[in-house]
Design brief:
The structure is a single chain. The chain is built from 5 helices and no strands. It is mainly alpha-helical. It folds into 2 domains: about 45 residues, no CATH class; about 70 residues, no CATH class. The two termini are about 25 Å apart.
Length: about 120
């Protein structure tokens, strides 16, 4: 599972950024290279092409990576993304779901409402 110590190099070609560092202006962009968090997170090179149409083969690490792309630095979740995450979270234990959300600075209550009520980390 990814932690705050995980190194996410930028995947944009010719970018020399070695590690994502959240900008003080926007936590979803890198202070170092100014590229988005997604440009760094996609570098994980996890292959989802072998996954079947159902979630039988999805581990909590895969769910964490997807949830990170959807929730990291965000304060709201669209309905379609919420449905996707709900389906993925059904495949893991509640304690794992709570830990994933905690790592992304979301509470269960905020996630259930689809928005963060109090933003204390921006």
């Amino acid at each position: 599972m990814l932690t705050n110590d995980t190194v996410l190099k930028c995947k944009i070609s010719n970018c020399q950024c070695e590690q994502f560092r959240a900008s003080s202006i926007s936590v979803r962009s890198c202070d170092e290279c100014k590229h988005s968090y997604v440009s760094h997170a996609l570098n994980r090179q996890t292959s989802y092409t072998n996954l079947q149409s159902h979630c039988d083969l999805v581990s909590s690490e895969h769910i964490f990576e997807i949830a990170t792309l959807c929730l990291y630095g965000c304060t709201t979740v669209t309905t379609r993304i919420k449905i996707l995450l709900d389906r993925l979270f059904q495949e893991i234990h509640t304690s794992e779901k709570e830990q994933i959300l905690k790592n992304l600075r979301w509470t269960i209550n905020d996630y259930n409402k689809s928005y963060v009520e109090q933003v204390s980390y921006f």
